[in-house]
C-alpha cells in the first residue's frame, strides 16, 4: 500500500495543474479587520449566531461587521488565561464552551467574561461535542469525558474503564446513536444509549493515529490518520475502503500536509491542508478540487496554509489559517468571476476589463486594455488577439472600447485607433480605414440599433458613424436626416429605445434625443437649472420595462421619462455609494443595476431603496470602468470591473428576509463615558439624559445592507429606519422608557423579533410632583423661623457682646501667658549658664549659641502682637529653640520633624512649638542613655506633638496652667479642640491647624 501511495503521489505531482475553480468567492477577515492576530486555531458559532475564532493571542467574536477581542490582561482575574484554545462549541443549554490546554472555560454572557470549569482543571480539552442539555462529550488528553453543563460535573471514562481506551482524543463525531472517537490508538465507537465502547478495526498500521472523521451525504465514512498520513473513504459498514492519501502527502515525508476535515450541511467533504490550500471532494471526477491562493485573484483564499475548518448554521464554510479567516457560502454564490486573461495577469494591465458581447455560439468576446479575448464558458478556454512588437498587428489597437455581434455572427470591435471586424466563418480580421468611409480615430463604443445598423461613437471628427449591413457601407451621422444636427459633437454612446427614439450620449456635452415620429430634438446638460441631468460625460444608456431611459455619467445617475421629459437624478446624497457611474442593466423585475467606482448597486422597482455590493459580497473589484454592461442570451448580466468581469443572474437575486436578531453594544452617556450594554435595563441619573445607544445584528452576507428600526416609547412618535448603528437622544425627561429595536435585510419587511432595553432616568427633585407643596411649606416655615430668630437675636445680642469682650480678655491673657512662658527665668537662667560654660571652653559655639538666643527673643518680640503665624515660620523658630536645648542636653534630647509640605502654609499660634517642647523637657528626665524623643508631624488637619514618658519625680515652677491656657486660646481660634492623650509610654497633643 505504501508503494502504491508513492506511485500515485508521483503521478499527481507530475500531472499538469488543473485550472483554478472560480465558483466560490472567499471573503477575508484579518488583523486589519480587528482580529487579535492572524493565527487561527479553532472556529465555532454560538447559539446567538456569533462566530468565534481562537487565535494565539486569545478569542475573537465576529458579528459580520466588527470584531470584539478577548485576551489575557495582567492583574485582571476575569481575563482569559494564557493557555491556547484548540476547540470551541455552543452547548445545548445555550452556553458557550472553550477548550484550552489547561482545562475548559464557560462564557458568562451577563458579565462578558470566561469562567474556568473546576472539574476540568489541568485537562487539555481537544474537542467538544454537545449531545443534549445535560450532556457534552469532551475529547481530551486524558481520554473521553462526559460533562454536564448544568451540574458542572465531569465523568472521566479512562479512570473507570480498561486501559485499552484511547488516552489522547483528537475528534468526536455523532452519527446514528453512536459517538465516533478519533484517538491516538485508533477509531472507537461509543453507544450513547448503553454507554458501551468498542474499537473499530481498520486496515491501517497499528501505530496509526486517527485524527479526524467525517460522514458524507452517501453515508461514506472518511478518516485521516498520521503515522502514516492517510486519507481513506469507507463504506457505511467499513467493509470497503478507497485510498485518497495522495492528496495529503507532501514531498517532505516529515511534513504533515493535513489540518482539518468536515462534512458540510449538504454532506460534501472539505479538507484543509498546510500546503495545498482548501480541497473539496468532487464526486463526478472522484478527486479533490483545490482552491489555492492567487495574489492576482482576490476572490481566492488568502493563504494555502490552513489550520481550522467549520460549517455554520447557514451552511457557510469558515476556513482559518496563518492569515486570518476566509469564509464563503458554497450554495449562495451570486457573482461568477471571469478573469480577463488566463495567463500573464500581472502584465500590461491584463486584469482590467472594459466591454463584452456574446456571439451566437455562446462564446463571450471580451474587450480589454490589452486586446480582444474569446472565452468559452463551457470549456474555460481563452483565445486572444493583440498586437506585439515584432509581429503583424492583429488589431487596430490593443485598447478595446466596444464589441458587437451582428446578425451574421461577425464580431465588430471599436478600438482606440479604428474599427475591426472579425469574420468567424473564415477566421479573418478585417481592418477598416479611411478609404472605407470611416476614420482611424479613437472610438468609445460600438452599439446596434433596432434596424441592425452597427454604430460607433467617437470623440473625433463627426462623432458618430454606422455600418449599414444592407448596403455594406459606412456612413456618417451627417447623412441621417434628423440625427445630423448632432454631427461634430464628440460621442460616447448611442441607444435606440422601443419607440424608435435615438438617445446620444456625448463626451462632455451632455445628452441628445431625436424622435423620428415627431421630428423633435431634445438636449440635456448638467447644470443648476431644473430638469438638468447628473453629468455631461455619458457612459451607458438603458431602457427599463416602463420605458424610462437611464443614463450613467461620471457625476451621477439620471432617469428621463421620454413622454413628460421629467428628469430624476441620483447621487451620493440620495442613495448612490459613489457618483461615478458606469455599466447599467435592467433585470426582469425592472430593477436597475449600476456599476460605480465604489461598488455595484441595485435600485429596486419602487425606485426608493438601493442595495449595495462590495468586495465582501463577491466582487473582484469595487471599481467599475466607464463602459457599458452586456445582457446575455440567457438573461445573465455581464459587467466589466478593474479586475475582470462579473457574470450574474439578476433575476435570481431576491432580498432574503432573514430573521436578524439585533443586540445592544454600547451606551455612550453625554459623550463623557462609554460602557458595554450587557443588561436589559439601565438606570441613569437626571443629568445623564444625553445618551447614544449602540446596536448591531449578526449578518455575514451583507452587513452594510442591514436595516435597523428603533423607537423610544414616549419620545419617538413612530419607528425610525436607518442603516446607522447608533441612536442619539438629548434632553430626555426623567421617567421610565422602553427602547425597542428590530433588524432586517429588507427595508420593507419588519415582522422580526424585537430586543427591548428598559431605561429609567431619574427626575430632578425640583421637577417632582411633591416638590412645590414642600417648597411652599418650607417657605412658610422659613418665614416663621426667621421672625422668631430675629426676636431671639435681639435678646441675645447684648449677651453675645459681653461674651465677646470676655473672650477677647481671655485671649489676651492666654497670649500673655504664652509670652511669659518664653521669658521664664529658669529658661533664661539655664541658657545663660550654658552660655557661660561655652565662653570658657568653646568661643565659636558660644557665639552661635548667643546668636540663637537672640533669634528666639527677636521672634517672640516680632510676633507678640500676632494672633497666628504660618507653620513654616513656627518650625523655623522651633528649630532654633531646639538647637539651644540640644546644646544643653546633647544626645539626651532627640527631635524629629515629619511635617507634610502641603501643611506648612497653614496657621498656628506663635511659640506653640516652643511651649510644648519646653513642657516636655520640664516634665521628663533627659539623659543620653535614656533620651527624651519628641516628634512633630501633621495628619488630617492636625499638628501632632508626641514624646516618650519618663516623668520626673518633682517638677520645678509648674503651675499646671500652660496647656489649659493653650486650650482656651485654640477654642477661641478654631472649631477643632486641642486633644491631649496620655498612655503608659507616650504623651500626645493634637494641635488643630488653622
Which features would summarize this protein structure in a list?
single chain; 994 residues; mainly beta; Thrombin, subunit H; five-stranded mixed sheet; 15% helix; elongated; Reg_prop
Task: Describe this entry's structure for a reader.
- With 994 residues, the chain is mainly beta.
- Among the domains are: 1-33 and 201-332, YVTN repeat-like/Quinoprotein amine dehydrogenase (Methylamine Dehydrogenase, Chain H, 7 Propeller), CATH 2.130.10; 34-167, 7 Propeller (Methylamine Dehydrogenase, Chain H); 571-652, Thrombin, subunit H (Beta Barrel), CATH 2.40.10.500; 662-767, Sandwich (Immunoglobulin-like), CATH 2.60.40.10; 804-992, Histidine kinase-like ATPase, C-terminal domain (Heat Shock Protein 90, 2-Layer Sandwich), CATH 3.30.565.10.
- Helices cover 15% and strands 38% of the residues.
- The chain is built from eight helices and 72 strands.
- The strands form 18 sheets. Strands 59-65-64-61-62 form a five-stranded mixed β-sheet, with no helix packed on it. It has a five-stranded mixed β-sheet with strand order 67-69-70-72-71, with helices on one face.
- The longest helix is centred in the C-terminal third of the chain and has 52 residues, at 771-822.
- The termini are far apart.
- 37% of the residues are buried.
CATH superfamily of one domain: Histidine kinase-like ATPase, C-terminal domain
- What ranges have pLDDT less than 50 throughout 5 or more consecutive residues? 1-21
Which structural class is indicated by helix and strand composition? mainly beta
Overall body shape: elongated
Radius of gyration: 46 Å
CATH topology of one domain: Heat Shock Protein 90
The CATH first-level class of one domain comes to: Alpha Beta
| Number of strand segments | 72
Q: Identify the strand order in the major beta sheet.
A: 59-65-64-61-62
Do you know the CATH architecture of one domain? Answer: 2-Layer Sandwich
- Largest β sheet strand count, sense and barrel closure: 5 strands, mixed
Q: Approximately how much helix is present in the residues?
A: 10-25%
Strand content: 35-45%
- End-to-end Cα distance, whole Å, is 98 Å
Amino acid at each position: 500500500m505504501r508503494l502504491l501511495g508513492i506511485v500515485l503521489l508521483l503521478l499527481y505531482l507530475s500531472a499538469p495543474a488543473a485550472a483554478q475553480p472560480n465558483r466560490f468567492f472567499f471573503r477575508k477577515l484579518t488583523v486589519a479587520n480587528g482580529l487579535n492576530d492572524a493565527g487561527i486555531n479553532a472556529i465555532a458559532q454560538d447559539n446567538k449566531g456569533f462566530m468565534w475564532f481562537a487565535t494565539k493571542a486569545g478569542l475573537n467574536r465576529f458579528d459580520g461587521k466588527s470584531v470584539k477581542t478577548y485576551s489575557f490582561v495582567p492583574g485582571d482575574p476575569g481575563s482569559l488565561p494564557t493557555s491556547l484554545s484548540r476547540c470551541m462549541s455552543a452547548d445545548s443549554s445555550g452556553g458557550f464552551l472553550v477548550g484550552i490546554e489547561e482545562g475548559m472555560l464557560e462564557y458568562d454572557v451577563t458579565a462578558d467574561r470566561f469562567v474556568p470549569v473546576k472539574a476540568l482543571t489541568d485537562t487539555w480539552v481537544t474537542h467538544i461535542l454537545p449531545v443534549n442539555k445535560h450532556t457534552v462529550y469532551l475529547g481530551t488528553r486524558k481520554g473521553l469525558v462526559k460533562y454536564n453543563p448544568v451540574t458542572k460535573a465531569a465523568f472521566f471514562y479512562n479512570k473507570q474503564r480498561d486501559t485499552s481506551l484511547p488516552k489522547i482524543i483528537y475528534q468526536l463525531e455523532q452519527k446514528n446513536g453512536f459517538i465516533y472517537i478519533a484517538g491516538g490508538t485508533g477509531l472507537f465507537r461509543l453507544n450513547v444509549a448503553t454507554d458501551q465502547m468498542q474499537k473499530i478495526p481498520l486496515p491501517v498500521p497499528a501505530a496509526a493515529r486517527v485524527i479526524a472523521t467525517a460522514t458524507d451525504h452517501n453515508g461514506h465514512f472518511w478518516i485521516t490518520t498520521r503515522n502514516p498520513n492517510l486519507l481513506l473513504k469507507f463504506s457505511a459498514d467499513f467493509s470497503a475502503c478507497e485510498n485518497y492519501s495522495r492528496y495529503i502527502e507532501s514531498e517532505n515525508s516529515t511534513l504533515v500536509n493535513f489540518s482539518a476535515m468536515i462534512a458540510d450541511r449538504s454532506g460534501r467533504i472539505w479538507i484543509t491542508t498546510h500546503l495545498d490550500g482548501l480541497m473539496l471532494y468532487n464526486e463526478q471526477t472522484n478527486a479533490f478540487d483545490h482552491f489555492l491562493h492567487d495574489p492576482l485573484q482576490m476572490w481566492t483564499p488568502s493563504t494555502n496554509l490552513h489550520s481550522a475548518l467549520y460549517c455554520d448554521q447557514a451552511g457557510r464554510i469558515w476556513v482559518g489559517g496563518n492569515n486570518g479567516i476566509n469564509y464563503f457560502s458554497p450554495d449562495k454564490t451570486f457573482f461568477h468571476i471571469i478573469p480577463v486573461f488566463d495567463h500573464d495577469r500581472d502584465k500590461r494591465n491584463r486584469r482590467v476589463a472594459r466591454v463584452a458581447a456574446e456571439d451566437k455560439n455562446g462564446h463571450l468576446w471580451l474587450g480589454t486594455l490589452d486586446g480582444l479575448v474569446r472565452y468559452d464558458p463551457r470549456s474555460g478556454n481563452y483565445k486572444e488577439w493583440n498586437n506585439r512588437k515584432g509581429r503583424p498587428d492583429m488589431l487596430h489597437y490593443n485598447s478595446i472600447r466596444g464589441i458587437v455581434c451582428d446578425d451574421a455572427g461577425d464580431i465588430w470591435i471599436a478600438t482606440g485607433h479604428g474599427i475591426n471586424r472579425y469574420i468567424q466563418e473564415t477566421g479573418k480580421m478585417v481592418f477598416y480605414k479611411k478609404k472605407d468611409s470611416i476614420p482611424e480615430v479613437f472610438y468609445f463604443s460600438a452599439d446596434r440599433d433596432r434596424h441592425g445598423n452597427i454604430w460607433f461613437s467617437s470623440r473625433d471628427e463627426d462623432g458618430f458613424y454606422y455600418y449599414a449591413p444592407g448596403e455594406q457601407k459606412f456612413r456618417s451621422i451627417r447623412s441621417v436626416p434628423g440625427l445630423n444636427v448632432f454631427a461634430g459633437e464628440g460621442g460616447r454612446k448611442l441607444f435606440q429605445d422601443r419607440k424608435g427614439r435615438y438617445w446620444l450620449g456625448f463626451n462632455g456635452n451632455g445628452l441628445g434625443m431625436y424622435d423620428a415620429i415627431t421630428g423633435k430634438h431634445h438636449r440635456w446638460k448638467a447644470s443648476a437649472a431644473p430638469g438638468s441631468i447628473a453629468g455631461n460625460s455619458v457612459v451607458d444608456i438603458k431602457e427599463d420595462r416602463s420605458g424610462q431611459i437611464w443614463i450613467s455619467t461620471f457625476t451621477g445617475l439620471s432617469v428621463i421619462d421620454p413622454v413628460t421629459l421629467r428628469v430624476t437624478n441620483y447621487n451620493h446624497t440620495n442613495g448612490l455609494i459613489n457618483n461615478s457611474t458606469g455599466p447599467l442593466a435592467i433585470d426582469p423585475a425592472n430593477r436597475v443595476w449600476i456599476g460605480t467606482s465604489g461598488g455595484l448597486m441595485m435600485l429596486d422597482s419602487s425606485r426608493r431603496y438601493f442595495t449595495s455590493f462590495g468586495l465582501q459580497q463577491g466582487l473582484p473589484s469595487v471599481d467599475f470602468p466607464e463602459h457599458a454592461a452586456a445582457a446575455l442570451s440567457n438573461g445573465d448580466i455581464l459587467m466589466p470591473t478593474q479586475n475582470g468581469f462579473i457574470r450574474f443572474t439578476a433575476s435570481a437575486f431576491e432580498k432574503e428576509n432573514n430573521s436578524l436578531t439585533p443586540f445592544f453594544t454600547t451606551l455612550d452617556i453625554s459623550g463623557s463615558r462609554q460602557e458595554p450594554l450587557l443588561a436589559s435595563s439601565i438606570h441613569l441619573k437626571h443629568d445623564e439624559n444625553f445618551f447614544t445607544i449602540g446596536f448591531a445584528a449578526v449578518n455575514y452576507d451583507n452587513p452594510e445592507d442591514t436595516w435597523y428600526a428603533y423607537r423610544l416609547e414616549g419620545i419617538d412618535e413612530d419607528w425610525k429606519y436607518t442603516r446607522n448603528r447608533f441612536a442619539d437622544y438629548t434632553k430626555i425627561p426623567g421617567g421610565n422608557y422602553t427602547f425597542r429595536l428590530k433588524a432586517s435585510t429588507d427595508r420593507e419587511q419588519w415582522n422580526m423579533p424585537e430586543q427591548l432595553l428598559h431605561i429609567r432616568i431619574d427626575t430632578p427633585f425640583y421637577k417632582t410632583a411633591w416638590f412645590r407643596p414642600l417648597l411652599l411649606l418650607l417657605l412658610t416655615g422659613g418665614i416663621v423661623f426667621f421672625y422668631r430668630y430675629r426676636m431671639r437675636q435681639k435678646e441675645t445680642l447684648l449677651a453675645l457682646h459681653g461674651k465677646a469682650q470676655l473672650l477677647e480678655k481671655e485671649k489676651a491673657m492666654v497670649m500673655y501667658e504664652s509670652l511669659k512662658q518664653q521669658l521664664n527665668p529658669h529658661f533664661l537662667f539655664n541658657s545663660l549658664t550654658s552660655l557661660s560654660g561655652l565662653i570658657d571652653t568653646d568661643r565659636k559655639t558660644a557665639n552661635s549659641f548667643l546668636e540663637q538666643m537672640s533669634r528666639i527673643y527677636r521672634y517672640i518680640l516680632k510676633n507678640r502682637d500676632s494672633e497666628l503665624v504660618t507653620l513654616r515660620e513656627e518650625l523655623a523658630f522651633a528649630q532654633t529653640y531646639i538647637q539651644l536645648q540640644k546644646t544643653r542636653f546633647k544626645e539626651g534630647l532627640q527631635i524629629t520633624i515629619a511635617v507634610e509640605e502641603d501643611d506648612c502654609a497653614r496657621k498656628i499660634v506663635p511659640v506653640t512649638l516652643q511651649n510644648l517642647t519646653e513642657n516636655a523637657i520640664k516634665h521628663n528626665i533627659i539623659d543620653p542613655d535614656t533620651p527624651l524623643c519628641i516628634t512633630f508631624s501633621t495628619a488630617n488637619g492636625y499638628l501632632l506633638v508626641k514624646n516618650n514618658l519618663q516623668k520626673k519625680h518633682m517638677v520645678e515652677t509648674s503651675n499646671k496652667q500652660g496647656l489649659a491656657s493653650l486650650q482656651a486660646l485654640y477654642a477661641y481660634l478654631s472649631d477643632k479642640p486641642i486633644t491631649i492623650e496620655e498612655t503608659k509610654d507616650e504623651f500626645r497633643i493634637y494641635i488643630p491647624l488653622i
